[in-house]
Amino acid sequence: MRCFKAVFVVMLFSAMTPAAQAEIDGHGPDGWRVTGVRVGEVLNARMGPGTNYPVIETFSDDERGLQQITCVPFYTAAHFMAMSETEVAALPPRWCLMRDAAMRKAGWVSQRYITPDGGELFDAPVGGLSTQTSEPYAMDPDIDPVMQAEDLVREVYERQFRSESGGMPSPFDPAVAGHYFTDDIVALFASGDIGAHPLYGSQDFDGSIGEPTADPDSPMYRGMITINVDFTNFGQDQRAVFYLRADSGKAGSALRIFRVEHEGWSYP
Question: 126, 58, 141, 42: which is closest to 92 by C-alpha?
């Protein structure tokens, strides 16, 4: 799991450090740009830091030169480095108050959709792994459902990694599995009758895991989202395929994984 750990550590700090640094010394990136929004769509800017606030402005999918006023939750790099993994995991998703280059419009946007202008694009973390039994994956109307599905699958892998180091319960623990999987899969995990490892398709793992990526041929069809995860295990290239859909039985019709396929076997 060493390669997998490196991926997530890099992702976490590349996503959080630029904004924190700007808050420390007051001379962070000169500008920010919108990222992760599909061409022709817009990024909603809200009255406050959360989807419960009304949309008051929009930024284009290629908006550049944005100015960052502040972000919440607020922390400096020193604060962040001093937090434990449990404290980092408990952080809520970060929102930033942004204004355009012309200073004509401003509003709160999710930090995952902004990146330093002129810098490399990066993927923001999910915003805090949930350790409780709430519904962290209610569908967000402002975010592409396929991207939400990628984030959910990514969090399954990140939680699995952290569980192996003793940081939190496994995503297959019935106490938290309902965050990610439909009830029939949760029941399967509880029974212990799954055979091989749900992510690796084998009893042991020694390799590296790629980023969860929407299926290029059929990312979403009739409400079903397909996410592929390519990985190597003991030198063998493999793929796990996750199928997700909105579960009307969950609060906010939350996305849940309802089927997983490995080469030669699947569940439930």
Answer: 126
Cα–Cα distance for residue pair 24/112, rounded to 1 Å: 20
Dihedral (CA of 85, 86, 87, 92) sign: positive
**pTM of the predicted structure, to 2 decimals:** 0.54
Residue 230 CB contacts under 8 Å (≥ 6 apart), including other chains? 210, 213, 237, 238, 239
Q: What is the DSSP string of 55-118?
A: EEEEEETT---BEEEEEES---HHHHHHS-HHHHHTPPPPEEEEE-TTSS-EEEEEGGGEEETT
The whole-number average pLDDT for the span 89-98 is: 85
CATH architecture of 12-116: Roll (2.30)
pLDDT at 30 (0 to 100): 67
- Chain mean position to CA 177: 16
> What's the CATH fold of domain 145-267?
Nuclear Transport Factor 2; Chain: A, (3.10.450)
Q: Which residues pair with 58 in a beta bridge?
A: 44
